[in-house]
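#dry-run=false #mode=assembly
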Amino acid sequence: MAANPPAEQVQPERPGRSGSAVRVVAAGVPLRQRFSDLVANRELLGALIRSEIKVKYKNSALGVAWTMVAPAIQLAIYGVVFGIVFKNGIPDYLIYIASGLLVWSFFSTSLLAGTGVIVGRAGIVKKVSFPREILAIATVGSQSIYLFLQWFVLALFMVVLGHVPDWSAMPLIVAGFATVLLWATALSILFSAINVYFRDTQHLMEIFVQIWFWMTPIVYSFQAQVHERVVGTANEWLSWIYLCNPITPVVLAFQRAIYGQVDVTNTTSHLPYQVLPSWPLLSFYELLGVVFLVGVVLMGFAIRVFSRLEGNFAEEL
Amino acid sequence: METGSVVVDQVSKRFRLYRDKHRSVKERVLHPGRLDFHELWALSGVNFVVEPGSTVGILGHNGSGKSTLLKTICGVLQPTSGEVRVRGKLAGLLELGAGFEPELSGRDNIYLNGTMLGLKRHEIDAVFDEIVAFSELEQFIDTQVKFYSSGMYIRLGFAVAVNVDPEILVIDEVLAVGDERFQRKCMDRIKKFQADGRTIIFVSQSPEQVRAICNEVVVLHHGEMIYHGEPSEGIRLFRERLNETDGGPVGAAVSGDTKNHDVMANQSLRLGEVRAGAPGSGSAVATHGGAEVTLSVETDIRIEELIASIELVSPMGVTLARFSSHDLGQPLSLEPGATTIVFTIDSVPFLDGRHQINVGLSTPGEGGPFVWLEQAAILEMTYAGKAEGLVDLAATVRIA
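#status=ok
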């Protein structure tokens, strides 16, 4: 039966139905089509994010408050270990860690949860047709909501402590969040598909995230503990390696905006101490811009890989 | 393409079956390039068109590619080559029901599932009560779905699928679950869908259900479509292929000597081949036109009166008829050597099914030779009408 395009457009008996378009099931759907499918399913994205949050805190007394517990404990541990035991010397050290740690835990939990999402939601994947990337995107989406809640608590905390952020650097938060959101989504999409075929991906990811955490200047200072030690030496390239970590510019941007102080007085030696790079704000935007563009390419690659692997999900799960 | 139509265009699907499971990263590193698999074409070049408003049954034995085909139509699996074009909203119930999130309540799952089927929130609000009423889960709607029984699960799935106003409804064997009353309710709803002029694609292992509701049948055999057309011929073909895969042709000759050796108490009387089928033609499948059961018997001695009896057992194990040459008032006498005994049944009013035939041989009085063979042959019935049940009563109806 040859489809007759002019006849298709005239459908008198059921006008305006969402289902009036021809849906094609075939191997290799073009990238543009996939993106428009994603946009068309935005309502589903909302429903999946809601359901994910609901499932996670079903039957738990504290509910969403649990999202505060893990970062709070992490903060306390790092605060004690590096602030008190090792005497880091960074004033308002808890705020310093929090400004990088919250966005990092958003990124890492998104990555870990996102990697397992297709396998974890096999029941839906095997039964209903929809762009499955949405599951990975919804995971990142629900993590974003937790991040906003955590930021809200951090803001209260800062008011209590009287720590003032750098208001002029606030747009960095928007740029930084857009960048980390893009990366978390792209990597979640990519690894969620790979994890269907290689279930080790999930476990490798946990190790990988651990290493990645310590390679990112969250509990220590990029400027004081990495850059200043290598600048002018033969190892200056190390500083660049650090900046190749896409999360480093993001974390630096958040620290610049939330912690907001470049030059402080070391609380142990009482000497002037440079915690953050003294670059003009524009440099932060430039760095984020580069990372964002690489993220766009990564996203295209991730969706391409995903669409190649998606065809057999229902069989492999 | 009109709304409500499905075009299956040269759809092929290849699966790779891996022999050894060297599939983790570690194993792949240890055994590079040694991924051992063989290919299986679950579907090859399947090609058909479902016109709007038609009800198509898909028949095929296990492993014929039915479920794979249905999954590609629903868009859950992508074909290796070819494509499926669907116009109109499609709601599907694959295997055991819709995709539910076990941790969520029935209520939340209705919303999630409805959204996945393309409904807006207010549209779900509008049909929510109807879904709950149809599924009869009022008391359990706020219970997590993981606590549902399989019957409750399927009820909710069916209720969502039929109430989201789909133009195309795809159902895979789901009517096998649930109690009889709910099954009837589902069938009623399916018939209402037909009356509304919606398209239905229906997979069932039961030719009876297919015959009852479908006006077209697609028969799959080892991933190939061997038939697309009017149901009764499709059901006949399906039956024939089913028996081939069972290992023997219909009306299979089951040798009494080899099969039930211990009941062959008396070696002076031996039961050979038993065949059942349409009279004369040797066709495997009988219709209501009648059937013939042929017994090959061999004896060393002369037997004055032999009583040959046959028993017909329905697929459900109900004995439908038992009669013997004695009951029929037709005594048989046997000379030494081989003899063929033929039972001719003028009219077999049974509906579809594989009826088992048991055969017995005996003589009057005690101590004589006695042979009894269970499942001596299978009588395969096809029925072209729409009635349901066990027998065709050849009823008519009129206004008096």
